[in-house]
Amino acid sequence: MLKIQKFCAFLYLTKILFMKTKILLMTAVLGLASLSFTSLKMDKKLNQTKTELQNTKDSVLRHVVLFKFKEETSEDQLVSFEKAFGDLAGKIPQISDFEWGLNNSPEGLDKGFTHCFFVSFKSEEDRAIYLPHPDHKAFVSLIGPSVDDVMVVDYWTK
Fold first, then answer.
1. Positions of the chain with pLDDT lower than 70, given as ranges
2. 61-156 in CATH: which number?
């Protein structure tokens, strides 16, 4: 009788262990499936976002440059930098449009950035030609010693 009780207890424990293993495996499979689905969904969303941000028929690629100049930079230097940046539009044919202005926001959130320049391109290829262009590099070298900080953001217009 004792052997039968031990055998029944063994079967019962085996059944419980089997059920726990089955639940653990099912949880693992569902977890992996969920991760795969989430990953696919994220990949699709990233690709979709990238595609949405690429140019449409009438959009342009904007290259936004914000400058914070050192305090010792003179007004004459600033005027020469503004002119030199503007002159790039006539020297680099890939620039489709150019505009700039001085910060006049009343919010006080400019963090010392005073100058904003917009350089527009028709394609990423045009921007790729502009960035290493000798005239652009010369401009960067010209203003470099006077720049305290710079921020650049590029985006496709919608």
1. 1-56
2. 3.30.70.100
Whether this model's pTM surpasses 0.90: no
Distance CA 75, CA 140 (A): 18
The proportion of the chain whose per-residue pLDDT surpasses 70, expressed as a percent, equals 65
Nearest alpha carbon to residue 122 among 77, 157, 147:
157
Encoded tokens for 76: 């004459």
| Backbone angles phi and psi of 147, in degrees to 5 | -85, 125
Which pLDDT value is given to residue 39?
Answer: 57
Nearest to 101 by CA among 110, 119, 114: 114
Q: Residue 116's Cα: distance from chain center in Å? A: 19
Q: How far does the chain reach from its first CA to its final CA, in angstroms?
A: 82
Contacts of 95 (CB under 8 A, 6+ apart): 88, 89, 119, 120, 121, 126, 130
